[in-house]
Design brief:
By secondary structure, the protein is of the alpha/beta class. The protein has one domain: Aldolase class I (TIM Barrel), CATH 3.20.20.70. It has ten helices and twelve strands. Strands 1-2-3-4-5-6-7-11 form an eight-stranded parallel barrel, surrounded by four helices. A hairpin with a 2-residue loop joins strand 9 and strand 10. Helix 9 runs antiparallel to helix 10.
């Protein structure tokens, strides 16, 4: 029996990159094996080097190249101007939207538009999934703190016509706050942040007093220092009927990582791929949440 082949997606860029770096990244993404590409600013509305009309233009180009394109919404809304921008995004007729908070879900549903939910929308049980499916949900991303056990339960009662996507590689998005930690770490107020986050294209490392690499400061978002990755669990995820594996962009080697996942979804032998992947991650790997352990843990050969 052939393994259910999952699609690969490239999640929205979570960091603040120079405009040219963003444009170059999507030029490369266009020829990558990823079938689905999410575009847009999901962390901070002050990051405006790539504007809404730019995202649409990039999206149209990618779509001409055969990619499915989704526009992602801001995760945490704090100002009327952000709500205005969100309304505009949710009424666009070019692309489906990934809702990263419930206000986006409401706007899309009121506009009668189908949508995707991102990992920050807390869908923890089958009733939530069904409720959103009734409102137009077409694909949901499993929240990163949930594991294979919950996923199996959710898949068993998944509404018809809804795809499941798993956050397959990237630093875990752990928390969002009204405060900007990157600015704070430079003793700057948020209103005068001087765009310090552009100096950290993979976020700013925060170590414990024992010098353990612990968290990443990425503006208003806190991430894990370790990169969560599900490579070894690909056969299990395929068996559970997962439709899409999401790769979250990092400043370097994202295309190589996508190649590794592309090979992994076609071959049952993960070991050499695993070794190759670990060399490309900035601070090492974890998969604890997925296998029901502490998030920091990395279990190399989970019991099948």
């Amino acid at each position: 029996m052939s393994m259910h082949t999952m699609k690969l997606s490239i999640g929205p860029i979570q960091y603040f990159w120079e405009r040219q770096q963003v444009l170059d990244f999507y030029q490369q993404a266009a020829s990558s094996p990823a079938e689905i590409i999410y575009l847009g600013e999901v962390i901070c509305s002050k990051r405006r080097l790539v504007k809404p009309q730019d995202w649409i233009a990039i999206g149209k180009e990618l779509r001409q190249g055969g990619k499915e394109v989704i526009l992602s919404s801001l995760t945490l809304l704090e100002a009327a101007s952000e709500t205005g921008a969100l309304k505009k995004l949710c009424s666009n007729d070019d692309f489906m939207v990934e809702a990263n908070d419930i206000s986006a879900v409401q706007l899309l549903s009121a506009n009668g538009k189908d949508f995707v939910t991102g990992p920050s929308v807390n869908i923890y049980n089958q009733r939530s999934l069904q409720l959103l499916a009734d409102k137009g949900l077409k694909r949901w991303v499993l929240p990163v703190e949930l594991g294979l056990e919950t996923l199996a339960d959710m898949q068993a009662a998944r509404p018809a016509g809804v795809e499941t996507e798993v956050f397959a590689l990237g630093r875990l998005p752990l928390a969002y706050s009204a405060r900007c930690y990157t600015a704070r770490s430079h003793n700057l107020p948020k209103d005068n942040c001087q765009f310090k986050c552009i100096d950290y294209p993979d976020g700013r490392m925060l170590k414990t007093r024992e010098e353990q690499e612990f968290l990443i400061l990425n503006g208003t978002q806190t991430q894990s220092a370790l990169t969560h990755q599900v490579l070894e669990e690909i056969p299990q995820l395929a068996a559970l009927g997962v439709d899409v594996l999401r790769i979250s962009p990092q400043a370097n080697n994202t295309m190589e990582i996508i190649e590794i996942f592309n090979n992994a979804r076609k071959t049952p032998n993960m070991n050499p791929l695993s070794d190759e992947l670990l060399k490309l991650l900035p601070a090492g790997a974890c998969n604890g949440y997925l296998v029901g352990k502490a998030g920091l843990d990395y279990e190399v050969n989970p019991a099948a």
